[in-house]
Fold:
Amino acid sequence: MQSISPETIYRGNYAWQKSLTQITKLTKSPLILGRGIQTNNLRNKIFNDLKNQKLNVNSANLKFDCCYEDISRVKNIILKNNNDSVIAAGGGKVLDSGKYIAACLNIPCITVPLSASTCAGWTALSNIYTKDGQFIKDVSLRSCPKILVYDHKFIQTAPSRTLASGIADALAKWYESSLTSSRIDDGFVQQAIQISRVLRDQLLIDGEKAFKDQFEENNPSWRNTVEACGLTAGLVGGIGGEKCRTAAAHAFHNAITQIITPNKSLHGEIVGVGLLLQLRLEEMKNNNKLAHQSTKQLLLLMNQLNLPTTIAQLGINVFEDNNLEKIADFTCRDKSEIHFLPFEVHRQDIVEVISNFEQQKIKI
Ligand SMILES: [Zn+2]
Structure:
């Protein structure tokens, strides 16, 4: 069984308005799930638009993260209200929680991403964290969301930092899948990897202009970039399925989230650093001569997008509090994606690569 995409996708300006007819047919009593106060206005609009359609609407917010505490609290709210769907409107954590809760209760999920920071609005996957944001595991869901509403007018209101984060996360698709899955003899997997290459090229071509001119009216670079991050990246996961795997960049991400910091970094910001670490690992442990060129190319773009390029810039000193050891342990734990790499990686390799990476500035 493979769920490739949401059943219906609305995209472009005013996609939300266009989706209302179908949403009102699908649900009579939705719960709108959100999180941050910065997206309150948009969620209020969604709430009022649905009320005007004579739906019985409730809302709830995550207190922490896509974590078991919030999940069970929101599940109880839904059971108490008798809601018949979840409308998850927000970033990746909200979308992942909404999909997971809807799957547990066997009710449809409608995703309304409010930034281009991840492809979570598309996929049949939820990442579960602790309430402090430490990665626990990812869970495969039976299906992608019932309806995905990718309204450009909503996404345009998001801070440009979320777009940069989405670009880093989407770029990782090519570098990770081409490394782990290129030997898999399955047409869908091979085609998914090819799409992720085109996706990377699109981001290298359009990413900077999209980021710098986000608020310019009718900016095709911005349109193509947000759709690449929020939609095409999801399609790669849908077609490639479990075999089109994440690799070291996400393994490093998952390990770095184990260190709790006062200022939280976004998912893609950490994945971006993980991607640079993956390339360094390939260079040092697999003698990959192209990895250094890729690093230079990525650093150019990441600097233009104001993305962090070291673990220190994520607010973590790896040489304090056993942080390096904690990251290396989690990176190499039994269930880690690091073991999907086509070469063997040991804990000591990770310690060596991260120490080298954090101490040495790469010339570009
Ligand atoms: Zn990701």
Remarks:
- The CA atoms of residues 279 and 291 lie 5 Å apart.
